[in-house]
């Protein structure tokens, strides 16, 4: 996990230096806001209609990168999401049984973005590739298994309103990855399809 995280950060730094060298007219851009993930269907990380199920699908989002007149690129941490669900014996009707444990999951989404920006007055649209990683941990009692989705190509895009060096943006980005468990099985990330963000950005 630490090695993969360090590799992603090194790639982000390399991308920023490359873009800075390629463009004499580039600003540093930082952003922060809120993210919301679309969850996997019930039955994967939680069961439908079962008391005690909690989904933490809202999180903080932050980014740092470079931006020109018609492009932006950098690194974005697009949220940390959680689930918690009671576990019932398979052979019982849940209304007549007591749960025997708690199944917990936690994961994060981060990646590198490079977007083309089309402007119309104070408004703009942005779209481009999103090279991301969705990783997660599952835990039942004291037992846990970590797995990480491979770095996956996706897409990011949205709209924004610009006022001087400030921007308010709403974006959606790919968030759907699979990883291999220690026993060789396949785990799906908590996110399914996309994560949404509403962020405020400032350019220096």
- Total helical segments: 1
Radius of gyration: 19 Å
**How big a fraction of the residues is strand?**
over 45%
Helical content band: 10-25%
Mean pLDDT rating: 82
Describe the structure.
By secondary structure, this protein is mainly beta. The chain has a single domain (2-203), classed as Beta Barrel (Porin), CATH 2.40.160. Helix content is 10%, strand content 62%. It contains one helix and twelve strands; from the N terminus they run αββββββββββββ. The protein has one helix at residues 2-22, and strands at residues 27-39, 54-56, 58-67, 71-87, 101-120, 123-140, 143-148, 152-163, 166-174, 178-180, 186-188, 191-203. The chain has an eight-stranded antiparallel barrel. It has a two-stranded antiparallel sheet with strand order 10-11. A hairpin with a 2-residue loop joins strand 5 (101-120) and strand 6 (123-140). The protein starts with a helix and ends with a strand. 27% of the residues are buried. The mean pLDDT is 82.
Could you provide a short overview of the structure?
The protein is built from one helix and twelve strands; from the N terminus they run αββββββββββββ. With 204 residues, it is mainly beta. It has a single domain, classed as Porin, CATH 2.40.160.20.
Highlighted features:
two-stranded antiparallel sheet; mainly beta; Porin; 204 residues; 8-stranded antiparallel barrel
């Amino acid at each position: 996990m630490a090695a993969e995280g360090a590799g992603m950060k090194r790639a982000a730094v390399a991308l920023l230096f490359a873009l800075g060298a390629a463009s004499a007219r580039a600003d540093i851009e930082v952003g922060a806001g809120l993210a919301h993930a679309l969850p996997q269907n019930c039955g994967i990380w939680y069961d439908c209609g079962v008391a005690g199920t909690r989904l933490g699908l809202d999180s903080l989002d932050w980014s740092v990168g470079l931006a020109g007149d018609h492009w932006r690129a950098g690194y974005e941490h697009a949220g940390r999401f959680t689930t918690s669900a009671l576990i019932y014996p398979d052979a019982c009707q849940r209304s007549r049984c007591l749960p025997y444990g708690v199944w917990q999951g936690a994961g994060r989404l981060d990646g590198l973005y490079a977007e083309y920006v089309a402007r119309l007055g104070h408004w703009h649209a942005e779209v481009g590739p999103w090279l991301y990683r969705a990783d997660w941990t599952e835990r039942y009692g004291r037992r846990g298994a970590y797995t990480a989705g491979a770095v996956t190509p996706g897409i990011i895009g949205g709209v924004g309103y610009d006022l001087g060096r400030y921007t308010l943006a709403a974006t959606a980005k790919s968030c759907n990855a699979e990883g291999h468990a220690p026993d060789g099985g396949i785990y799906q990330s908590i996110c399914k399809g996309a994560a949404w963000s509403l962020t405020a950005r400032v350019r220096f």
